[in-house]
Write a structure and sequence with these properties.
With about 475 residues, the protein is an alpha/beta fold. The protein has three domains: about 55 residues, OB fold (Dihydrolipoamide Acetyltransferase, E2P) (Beta Barrel), CATH 2.40.50.140; about 130 residues, no CATH class; about 150 residues, OB fold (Dihydrolipoamide Acetyltransferase, E2P). The protein is about 25% helix and about 30% strand. The protein contains nine helices and 23 strands. The chain has an eight-stranded mixed beta sheet with strand order 7-22-23-21-20-17-18-19, sandwiched between helices. Strands 10-9-8-11-12-13-14 form a seven-stranded mixed beta sheet. A six-stranded mixed beta sheet has the order 1-5-6-4-3-2, with no helix packed on it. β11 and β12 form a beta hairpin.
Length: about 475
């Protein structure tokens, strides 16, 4: 295969997260966003070390796996869901095999297979499905833009493979219908008034994002309009936003509003963040319930995006942890302290470390609200803080971001010589890298289980129970 040339072939398998693999004339090619069994046309964009990377041009024929009866109407244009056309049970099988293969590759590379797959001391427990596969997401960040240059105002998700084009997603399948109603009403309101969206290259415009969060258990909704501070030539901003809030409050929704917010963000980066937040109606937080505990959630609080799936995930974590009576537990990368608070009722002491200060404050509030007095939450980067913790952990919970654990933090974590660790991963390739280090440094994996938190997408959560062999 040659760079710049166009080829046609059939995808043989998938590698995490969305890489279709095929071979042509003995050479391996990786084509993103292609499914096993699809015949695809692609152009080779990179070639190095005998491996080609291809950019998908066209799906010439569908995969035999694509038999889902009711795919999302936005499938193929929206970049959000790759597996929408595959029945859910088959999605689970693909994800399970991806994680199983990654773990087996780690053991094989270390030549310690006697302690891994196939041994009596190792169990791969398959994959647990999400309790619901449609309408499961409790948070969405929709972007303003246009579907084609100069077209009408759009509000939704990025077109697959595009940095600029935004696809209207009024009928998204992975969110509750309230999200779609809020999206449609917001787009129509601002389109009718000719309000411009923010153009990322020119750094001009007003509308940036619509952030929506909705609790599954309580039905409370938080909606936040994210804009720049560029108001020249617009109607009076206060009146414009108050009328928008009024439009939302008049909608027939299944849930109820906890708050409607306006967030100003003049960052050049295409991220949802706040320079200043103003409450237009209600309050800037809501409550969700999980495993009998109550959690206060604000616009930027970290909280699992699938509430019902999170209960399955954390129940699995609790099973893998085992008995914590009288023990000291470190919950590293603790977010809003969900895992820490699940363990706290029977543990002696739980210490959480999280870099996002807002999440730490929320964790402290949540612990107090749930009557837990043996939880301590520390604000800081794990790599900088963990070495100064004034306790010897019996158990360490690791729930890092997608990139996994920083090598310097890993060294400090291993130095505690905790008897047990439980690693919760949202990116199997990062888990595989970190698992290799832990296995080399005296730990072995006892149990591995996948939990599907993201139906219709290529993402998966994995839980690994590790024991020190000394």
């Amino acid at each position: 295969m040659k760079k710049g040339e166009i080829y046609t072939g059939t995808i043989e398998k998938m590698e995490f997260p969305n890489k279709g693999i095929l071979h042509i004339d003995g050479e391996k090619a990786v084509v993103k966003n292609a499914l096993p069994g699809q015949t695809v046309r692609f152009v080779v964009s990179k070639k190095r070390n005998g491996r080609c990377e291809g950019r998908l041009l066209e799906v010439e024929s569908r995969s035999p796996l694509e038999t889902a009866a009711d795919p999302c109407p936005h499938f193929g244009r929206c970049g959000g869901c790759l597996m929408q056309t595959i029945p859910y049970e088959r999605q689970l099988g693909i994800k399970e095999q991806q994680v199983r293969s990654l773990v087996e590759q780690v053991y094989a590379s270390l030549e310690i297979c006697a302690l891994g797959p196939g041994s009596d001391d190792y169990v791969f427990e398959g994959i647990k499905p999400s309790p619901v596969s449609d309408g499961y997401r409790n948070k969405m960040e929709f972007s303003f833009g246009d579907e084609e240059k100069g077209g009408p105002l759009s509000l939704g998700m990025h077109r697959r493979g595009s940095f600029h084009d935004i696809v209207n997603t009024d009928n998204c399948h992975i969110v509750n219908g309230d999200f779609n109603r809020l999206l449609t009403a917001t787009r129509e309101y601002f389109a009718a008034r000719g309000i411009p969206f923010y153009k990322k290259l020119q750094h001009q415009g007003y509308l940036r994002h619509l952030l929506v969060r909705r609790a599954v258990r309580t039905g409370e909704i938080l909606a936040a309009l994210v804009t720049t501070s560029q108001t020249e030539g617009l109607p009076p901003e206060e009146e414009l936003l108050e009328q928008w809030a009024g439009e939302l409050l008049s909608l027939p929704l299944e849930g109820t509003f906890a708050g409607i917010l306006h967030i100003k963000n003049d960052s050049l980066a295409d991220v949802v963040q706040s320079d200043k937040t103003r409450v237009l109606w209600g309050q800037e937080y809501f409550y969700e319930e999980l495993l009998g505990l109550k959690f206060k959630i604000s616009p930027f609080s970290f909280f699992q995006t699938n509430s019902l799936g999170a209960e399955v995930l954390y129940e699995t974590v609790r099973q893998y942890i085992g008995d914590t009576k009288g023990k000291t537990v470190f919950d590293l990368y603790s977010g809003t302290g969900t895992i820490a608070q699940i363990l706290a009722p029977v543990a002696e002491r739980v210490i959480g470390v999280e870099i996002v200060a807002e999440a730490v404050e929320a964790a402290r509030e949540n612990a107090a609200m749930n009557g837990l007095t043996n939880c301590e939450f520390i604000s800081g980067d794990v790599v900088k803080v963990v070495g100064d913790l004034d306790a010897a952990p019996d158990l360490i919970i690791l729930d890092p971001p997608r990139d996994g654990i920083h090598p310097r933090a890993m060294e400090k974590i291993i130095d505690f010589r905790a008897g047990r660790m439980v690693y919760v991963s949202c990116k199997p390739t990062s888990l595989a890298r970190d698992l290799e280090v832990l296995l080399q440094r005296g730990y072995r994996a006892e149990r591995v289980c996948c939990v599907d938190m993201f139906p219709a997408t290529a993402n998966i959560e994995t839980v690994v129970a590790l024991t020190r062999m000394e």
